[in-house]
């Protein structure tokens, strides 16, 4: 059971509601490890959670690069871009095969990153804050997609606790349908 492209209050978000026991178990294990650590314990997210989830710190940058580097075009929505070279270079390498939406309120660093992407032929649009703020983090290609909380910044990928999922199959079509609506709105 999936819900994509939902509007939570005034934000664009992507949410996956699943009954997949492996995913649910991994999310619970990460929560319990983080809860224990917050209470002064010394518990880390189990290794298997990194195989099931796109999880940072740890494995998220490599998994995002896998989605970005898949053959063919990709669509990306993100609240932040950042100057994180591995992600930015992979996006730039897509050239005309990249369509990206960011909020119109991006900071100066993100504006420089957008200029860099446009110099490489990438298509980037900025979405006005009203009626909908771009808070979503999504990458969709022909065979693989990502949704999650990870911004494409070094802080988000290497330091913060962030979580996402890799998706495939019919889920990708649902993501791309919503992206196309947002792309037209960002015009």
From TrEMBL:
Phospholipase D-like domain boundaries: 88-183
InterPro entries: PLD-like_dom
Gene3D superfamilies, per the entry: Endonuclease Chain A (3.30.870.10)
This protein's name: Phospholipase D-like domain-containing protein
Biological source species: Acidithiobacillus ferridurans
């Amino acid at each position: 059971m999936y819900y994509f492209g939902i509007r939570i209050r005034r934000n664009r978000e992507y949410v996956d509601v699943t009954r997949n026991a492996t995913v649910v178990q991994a999310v619970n294990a990460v929560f319990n490890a983080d809860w224990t650590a917050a209470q002064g314990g010394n518990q880390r997210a189990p290794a298997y959670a990194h195989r099931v989830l796109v999880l940072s710190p740890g494995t998220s940058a490599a998994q995002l690069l896998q989605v970005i580097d898949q053959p063919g075009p990709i669509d990306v929505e993100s609240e932040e871009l950042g100057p994180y070279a591995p992600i930015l270079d992979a996006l730039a390498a897509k050239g005309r095969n990249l369509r990206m939406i960011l909020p119109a309120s991006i900071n100066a660093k993100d504006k420089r990153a957008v200029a860099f992407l446009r110099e490489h032929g990438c298509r980037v649009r900025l979405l006005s804050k009203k009626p909908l703020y771009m808070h979503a983090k999504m990458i969709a290609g022909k065979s693989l997609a990502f949704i999650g909380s990870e911004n494409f910044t070094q802080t988000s990928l290497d330091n913060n606790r962030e979580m996402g999922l890799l998706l495939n199959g019919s889920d990708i079509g649902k993501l791309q349908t919503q992206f196309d609506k947002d792309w037209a709105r960002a015009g």
